[in-house]
Amino acid sequence: MTTEFDRRFFQSLKGQGVHLSAPLPFQGGRSNRVWRCGDQVVKLYLPQQANPLFANDAKREVAALTALAGTGMVPRLQRRGSFEGQDWLIYDHITGVPWQRDAAHVAQLLGRLHDQPGFCALPQGRNGSAELEAQTLAILAQCGDVTVAAQLIGQRPFGQVPPLRQLGVIHGDPVPGNLLTHDGTLTLIDWQCPQQGDPSEDLALFLSPAMQFIYRGAALSEAEEDSFLSAYPDPAIVGRYLSLKPWFHWRMAAYCLWRSHSGEPCDRHALQLELTALDQSSIPKRA
Questions:
Q1: What does the alpha-carbon distance between residue 191 and residue 43 come to, in Å, rounded to a whole number?
Q2: Which conformational region is residue 118 in: left (phi greater than 0), alpha (psi within -120 to 50 degrees), or beta?
Q3: Digit-coded pLDDT (tens) for 63-74
């Protein structure tokens, strides 16, 4: 539905000489307003409650689209600006569909990304089990369901995994909805929360049963997960992911509980998927 604010926004773009086709809103976004205007995409960042896991930073997205231009991993940035205190971006539209199958292809794309040189505007991500624990406890402290939050605190994983010394560029949200398949290739979109971080974080976010369910409708099968881990180019990072796997599932369960305050059934189901994965991850399947 077009609002008065939307009309003012597009009238402002027109007044700046930005010529766009009739805007068609994209469906399914969980953070911002996004429209397709012919061969262009217009993204308007919305003010919202601070998200404890996924940042919503226009400056980071501009930095990522600029630094990674020409790699084929990102859409081409055209313009940026602000309207009534809200940031906006315009970038090329990619004719494709959200990722559904071939997990190995995603692993190869993430491997390429993690080899890219760092760039400005990137904060340092969480690194090692101690920082993941602190972040998870902070998320649980914000959850309205204190009973379930207390139960989750009691499910804290055992053992410690030290920080990684050599960090890399990570997307920070490589879920199926942010992976577009087109012309036999993959492109990552929605770069509002990249970090200089532990590459195993991207592996965990893609493999998360909660994120797969929310964006694809089903968690990955065991065969799909094995295909992904086998195709990722750095075995050391795969091993690190497996060591941290319980911590990542514990954190995602806390995030799903935080999300469920809005009463969305999908977030409650996603929470159960992560709790099941947490139980199953106590003994790694791969050395």
A1: 12
A2: beta
A3: 999 999 999 999
Asked if residue 287 belongs to a domain, the reply is no
Question: Count of residues for the chain?
Answer: 287
Summarize pLDDT for 158-196 with one digit per residue, the tens.
999 999 999 999 999 999 999 999 988 999 999 999 999
Say if CB 89 and CB 62 are below 8 A apart. Answer: yes
- The residues of the chain scoring below 50 in pLDDT are 284-287
Pairing relationship of beta strands 168-170 and 179-182 according to DSSP bridges:
unpaired
C-alpha distance across the termini of the chain, in Å: 51
Q: Residue for token digits 């790699």?
A: 71
pLDDT computed for residue 117 by the predictor: 95
CATH of the domain at 61: 3.30.200.20
Q: Which of 112, 71, 103 is CA-nearest to residue 231?
A: 103
Q: Which residue in this structure is represented by tokens 């050391």?
A: 236
Q: Do residues 118 and 244 share a domain?
A: yes
pLDDT value, residue 265 = 83
User: Can you tell me the distance from the alpha carbon of 40 to that of 129, in angstroms, rounded to the nearest whole number?
Assistant: 41
Q: What DSSP string describes 231-254?
A: HSS-HHHHHHHHHHHHHHHHHHHH
